[in-house]
Amino acid sequence: MGATLPLKCLSCGIYASAQAPAPGQAPLVAPNAAALLRRNATDLRRIAGRNLIDAGEMRMRLNELLAQRRQRVERQRLAERYHLDGDYLLYAGGLDLRKNVTTLIHAYAQSGVTTPLAIAGAPRSAGSQFPDLPAVARGAGVADRVRFLGWVEEDDKPALYRHCQAFAFPSRYEGFGLPVIEAMQLGVPVLTSNTSSRPSPAAESN
Predict the structure, then answer these.
(1) Residue 159 · residue 120 · CB < 8 Å
(2) What is the mean pLDDT of residues 116-145?
(3) What angle do CA 188, 206, 201 make, to 5 degrees?
(4) What are the DSSP calls for 77-101, one per residue?
(5) Are 198 and 169 in contact (CB under 8 A)?
(6) Are 16 and 53 in contact (CB under 8 A)?
């Protein structure tokens, strides 16, 4: 066994001890790990203080830190762009009659759920195929809890799905229903209709 040598992280000035490599062996180094963790010095001290730096554990912890940072950034963006600063239920898609959003709003009102319902979709002028959904929400007495987000940028959709409590997609007819697949891929609970193509992809999650 080699001697215990002090190691110093040049980016944050942290000292840790690790076993020196045996003669002829190269030291185990996690490339750029210290640089990537320079803003998380406390966590690096916690790991390095055990006298053994394991590359697998370092990678796992780094991934956790990056995921936490991503969540903070996404939450901030959702609050700034769509005024979603807490828990919410989500519908995302078209707003025409076949999407059945009117039924969703009425069901939401009857459920007594207080978590806001966020409806994402490009607004259209009310007509025979496009109901006046804000008026529907007002008539159902939930205008203060139903939030119409309007058009959502593609880059924001993963965050919108990821942070919702559940995704509702009650469409009467769909050729495929991509939003259901997108939500399930991110591990989001999905409530959908059992008509058209909806049962097939939803059943795959059971």
Answers:
(1) no
(2) 92
(3) 75
(4) HHHHHH---S--EEEES--SGGG-H
(5) yes
(6) yes
For 117, the enclosing helix (H) or strand (E) is: strand 117-120
pLDDT digits (tens, 9 = 90+) for 178-202: 888 888 988 999 998 876 554 555 4
Any idea what DSSP says for residue 38?
A: G
Cα–Cα distance measured from residue 13 to residue 202, given in angstroms and rounded to the nearest whole number:
51
* Residue 194 burial (C-beta neighbours within 10 Å; 0-12, 13-18, 19+): exposed
Q: Is-contact 159 74, C-beta < 8 A?
A: yes
Instruction: With 0.70 as the threshold, say if the pTM is over it.
Output: no
Gyration radius of the chain's alpha carbons: 25
Sole residue written with tokens 């059971």: 206
The token pair at 202 is 């939803």
Asked whether the beta carbons of 102 and 131 are under 8 A apart, the reply is yes
Per-residue buried b or exposed e for 110-144, using 16+ beta carbons within 10 Å of the residue's own CB: eeeeeebbbbbbeeeeeeeebbebeebbeebebbe
3-state SS assignment for residue 7: strand
- The answer to whether the beta carbons of residues 22 and 1 sit under 8 Å apart is yes
Q: Which two tokens stand for residue 21?
A: 């490599």
- CB within 8 Å of 161: residues ≥ 6 apart: 90, 92, 167, 182, 183, 186, 188
Beta bridge partners of 18: 5
